[in-house]
Amino acid sequence: MEFFNFFDTLFSFNIVIEVIALYILFSLGYGVLYSSSLELATPPLLNSFLSFSSFFLILTFIFFGFDISTFSLDYNLYSFNQNIQLIFLFISIMVLFVTRDFVGARFISKFEYDILFSFVLLSAVCLCFADDFLLIYLAIELQSLCFYVFATFNRNSEFSTESGLKYFVFGAVISCLLLVGFSLIYLSFGSTSFESLLCLTNASDNPFLFCGIVFILIAFLFKVGAAPFHSWLCDVYDGAMISVTLLFAAVPKIIIFSVIVKIFLLIFYDFASFWSSFFLFSSLLSIAVGSLSAIYQKRLKRLFAYSTVAHTGFILLGVVAASSDSVKTLIFYLMIYSVLTILLFSLLIFAIISIVRFPGYLASWTSSGLKNYVFVMSFALTLFSIAGIPPLAGFFSKFLILFSFISQEYLLTSVTIVLISSVACFYYIRLIKTFFFVKSSKNSFWISSTKRQHSEYIIGTLLFFNMFFVFRPELFSSFSTLISITLL
């Protein structure tokens, strides 16, 4: 009966999964037939695919993702999943719009990029609504396979291939650990369904249970790029294309953390005294490693990779606190982090869209402020917000998550976190110094190739978004509160 219950669960999701699956089937058929058509001289399809994907995502968001039931105050898992799906679709639309020009210019004949992106969407939505460990594993594996290909998509780069291969090897080991962890949970409880596991809390002395929790915890820490399982993140960020780096940084975070919240704050909440110490150690180590290691980085994307590790540590604080307020601040932090990450990488993409090779070293960005003040002012404003400088958006996210952490009587730990994370301001300010004040001994890469209206749109969006939180920060906070109370 458990076997049939699994398939009942598999096909009991909302219509978004079916819509995305139908779109993938249509795209595969269309792409394979027309890209190999001799009569049509093998036309390039990626630009048309990206345009259609953008239109498709917007329609999905409007008609299926945005439902009045998502704003109900019912305390149920379905409402929580609907709200997370809403945020995820919005982030995916933003990522696709930001990267479409760059991807279309660099890989005009490779329609597989859009197909892989659609599979990432499908796996993420399945993962969002999964209420069975077996289905979670299958969805994570589907997503991981897509990201393995994305990491090595730039086949002209040996470093991209090397980093992608490392990611694949590490990911395969972690997948085995995750499967073993789920198997040990099944061995302890006799079920992998959330509904059944919520009723079983009498196995506190079972050693297989604790081993399973540790394996699951390690696997998810690897997936979000938390220390000490972060080494793959820096290599993949540095070796992948800038559009793929944005995909890694923004798209999977909200879904993976929502699964962590459901597993550890619902299923294993009775064992919080056991797993919270692991999350706390990883959180503190992530903040320390991310903040201190970024100081010594000379390559831009590796610096942003360590910055991501530090932000992951802050998000994990919401899991450690294990309360409804901490879940609210965790979701709030994820929303702010995702938008700021997209804004940051959109600036980089618009800057290099007509350049053959990405200027990876910090020294290549010297005196850029002398050539495009709008671009660098936008970049500086984004960096200040990510660093948590008040009164910008990033400050509110860090303040709220630290406040919820202090409310759980982690006062000394919070002071330590503030002192360590203040180091991060140094390398952000160093970037601004490089852009404005370091003179270049040779001609810089930056030519006024970015269209003026693009720069105006970027700076306008940045100013509106950051100032929005100065006057009305409670709007995003209210939405994250609504999501959290549907779960806890």
Description:
The protein is mostly helical. Helices cover 75% and strands 0% of the residues. The chain is built from 20 helices and no strands. The two termini are 30 Å apart. Pfam families: Proton_antipo_M. This is NADH dehydrogenase subunit 2. Keywords: Membrane, Mitochondrion, Transmembrane, Transmembrane helix.
What oligomeric arrangement do these chains adopt? single chain
In total, the number of strands is 0
Outline: globular
Report helical residue fraction: over 70%
Number of helices: 20
What number of domains? Answer: 1
| Low-confidence blocks of residues | 6-13, 66-75, 445-455
Mean model confidence by pLDDT: 78
Rg, rounded, reads 22 Å
Major sheet summary line: none
Structural class: mainly alpha
**First-last Cα distance:** 30 Å
Beta-strand residue percentage: under 5%
Helix-strand topology string: HHHHHHHHHHHHHHHHHHHH
Organism: Chrysochromulina tobinii
Subcellular location: Membrane
Main location: membrane
Membrane topology: Multi-pass membrane protein
